[in-house]
């Protein structure tokens, strides 16, 4: 882009907002614009960049300094969202974010902030209706070679309990395809990071794909991925999210898949979800209630420890 920052710890290099909080980078004393254009045109370009390109899937949507803040205050809940290409992972996370923006709470848990508001607000814009083009979906997650996925960060508080921080991964489906063919492959490192670091898992199944023409291929893809996830699960809780449930689809092909998933994962929670239905918040409610039951509210995670936050930090530092 069009400048440099004198602060080495500023997220600007990673397409994140100014560390000092200046919406206009030209106002920051540490920013050095490298363009020869007039200040007015630079200003316009920077404003456009901020509103259009700072999406959370750079893998660094969460600034390093923000992670230190988050890890200083609570133990990490890293929710690994796993599913094939086009399964509905990003749509589901965007829907959670949108519905949460309307409700402000999930059962007794109140929303207490997000370090990734800006990027997800950009994705949410695609879903807003009415608009000139009508409601739409966020674009496909680009297949990057990153070591860590884009993240949605949400913080919650119940009553006077300490804040709980949650990170939801948003990886492109291609990462998991490569991981299934070779779990040790260099280009599967992002999926491996999710499988190693997650404290909870959400396995996303596209119901529409099982009702389509390529049902055989879809079934194979879903079950091959499920098998590997089951092998790597280490007793971590898993929820199966059956997406696109608003569509009027023939569900005949689903029964055998549901049966195989029970073989792989044993008894598990299974939710029929649609981005259009606030009922998708049930997923968030389950994730929060598991954390409340099983993970201490006061984590006191230390930098350099084994939490997902410190794993993330190490990964992006490498
Ligand atoms: N009808 C309906 N369609 C959906 C829903 N969720 C997703 N879709 C459709 O599925 C497409 C893919 O959804 P994404 O959320 O981008 O899927 P993804 O799993 O993130 O895909 P990758 O990032 O490419 O792996 C969208 O563009 C929509 O067309 C839903 O709840 N209902
Ligand atoms: Mg996606």
Describe it:
The protein is an alpha/beta fold and 318 residues long. It folds into two domains: 3-54, no CATH class; 58-317, Rossmann fold (3-Layer(aba) Sandwich), CATH 3.40.50. The chain has helices spanning 39-52, 64-73, 89-103, 117-125, 173-181, 189-197, 215-232, 254-265, 281-294, 308-317, and strands spanning 3-5, 31-33, 76-82, 105-106, 109-113, 150-158, 164-170, 200-206, 238-243, 269-272. It has an eight-stranded mixed beta sheet with strand order 4-5-6-7-3-8-9-10, sandwiched between helices. A two-stranded antiparallel sheet has the order 1-2. Strand 9, helix 8 and strand 10 form a beta-alpha-beta unit. The model is unreliable at 37-61 and 298-306 (pLDDT under 50).
SSE map:
Layout: E1 3-5, E2 31-33, H1 39-52, H2 64-73, E3 76-82, H3 89-103, E4 105-106, E5 109-113, H4 117-125, E6 150-158, E7 164-170, H5 173-181, H6 189-197, E8 200-206, H7 215-232, E9 238-243, H8 254-265, E10 269-272, H9 281-294, H10 308-317
Parallel strand pairs: 3-7, 3-8, 8-9, 9-10
Antiparallel strand pairs: 1-2, 4-5, 5-6, 6-7
Helix pairs in contact: 2-10, 3-4, 7-8
The structure holds guanosine-5'-triphosphate (GTP) and magnesium ion (MG).
């Amino acid at each position: 882009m069009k400048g440099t920052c004198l602060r080495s710890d500023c997220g600007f290099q990673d397409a994140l907002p100014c560390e000092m909080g200046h919406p206009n980078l030209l106002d920051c004393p540490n920013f050095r614009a490298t363009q020869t254009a007039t200040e007015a045109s630079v200003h316009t370009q920077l404003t456009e960049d901020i509103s259009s390109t700072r999406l959370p899937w750079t893998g660094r949507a969460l600034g390093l300094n923000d992670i230190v803040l988050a890890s200083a205050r609570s133990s990490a809940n890293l929710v690994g969202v796993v599913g094939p290409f086009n399964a509905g992972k990003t749509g589901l996370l965007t829907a959670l974010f949108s519905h949460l923006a309307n409700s402000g709470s999930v059962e007794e848990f109140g929303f207490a902030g997000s370090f990734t508001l800006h990027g997800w607000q950009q994705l949410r814009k695609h879903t807003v209706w009415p608009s000139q083009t009508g409601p739409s979906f966020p674009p496909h997650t680009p297949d990057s070679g990153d070591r860590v996925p884009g993240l949605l960060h949400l913080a919650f508080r119940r009553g006077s309990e300490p804040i709980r921080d949650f990170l939801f991964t948003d990886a492109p489906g291609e990462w998991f395809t490569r991981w299934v063919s070779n779990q040790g492959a260099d280009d599967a490192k992002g999926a491996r990071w999710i499988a190693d670091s997650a404290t909870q898992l959400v396995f996303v199944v596209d119901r529409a794909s099982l009702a389509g023409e390529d049902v055989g291929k879809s079934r194979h893809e879903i079950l091959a991925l499920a098998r590997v996830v089951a092998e790597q699960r280490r007793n971590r809780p898993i929820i199966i999210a059956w997406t696109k449930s608003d569509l009027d689809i023939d569900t005949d092909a689903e029964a055998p898949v549901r049966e195989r998933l029970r073989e792989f994962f044993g008894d598990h929670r299974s939710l029929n979800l649609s981005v259009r239905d606030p009922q998708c918040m049930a997923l968030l409610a389950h994730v929060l209630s598991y954390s409340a039951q099983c993970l201490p509210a006061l984590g006191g995670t230390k930098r350099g420890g084994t939490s997902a936050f410190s794993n993330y930090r190490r990964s992006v530092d490498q």
